[in-house]
Amino acid sequence: GFCTNLLLSQTPEHILAQTNNRTEILCELKREHTGVYWYRWSQERQIFEFLLFSNTLGKAVYGANISQDKFSVHGARAHTSYSLHINHLHASDNGTYYCSVSQSFQLFLGSGTRLGVVDVLPLPLKTTQAPVSKKPVWYITKRKAASKKGPCSPLIWIPLTAGVLLLLLSLVHIAHRLHRLRQRLWLRIHRQ
């Protein structure tokens, strides 16, 4: 089975890259494992595809029809950090990439990195600043607002008062029944 877990973290969450360029995805492990698996989920083809497994010695085992020229893994920092490099990007590389480790016969997946490959990257949006207003702005603090309307509005007082009255009525009723039971008990004791 597949599980998501805090054994590993994956960054970034999203990548938008241009065709024919390259990109990389980082996988950080909380402790050392024998290696890292990499998978790709293709929404378009509805396939969860095994890409490769890279062990601590840097040896890689590739999935069926996976090119070694396209995918490579580089390890660092005492076998707790791995990065997947994807070269010669094309639209067919679109998908969500997961790093994974095996433990107790389960595969624990990272959070996933969504890769989108486009021919032309969108231009960054120009940010324009709104003109600064010269007019004074009046602020009403919470304390002032409360003093104008009173500490509580009628919408709060009415249900609160009704609840207290119901509670008092039920207490009076209970006290009356207890008093009657006490009288009966007293009569029963004195008859005997």
TrEMBL record:
Keywords: Adaptive immunity, Disulfide bond, Glycoprotein, Immunity, Immunoglobulin domain, Membrane, Signal, Transmembrane, Transmembrane helix
Gene (UniProt): Cd8b
Organism: Scytalopus superciliaris
SUPFAM superfamilies, alphabetized: Immunoglobulin
TM helices/strands, residue ranges: 155-175
PANTHER family: T-CELL SURFACE GLYCOPROTEIN CD8 BETA CHAIN, T-CELL SURFACE GLYCOPROTEIN CD8 BETA CHAIN-RELATED
SMART domains: IG
Membrane topology annotation: Single-pass type I membrane protein
Name of protein: CD8B protein
Domain of life: Eukaryota
Cellular component GO terms, alphabetical: cell surface; membrane
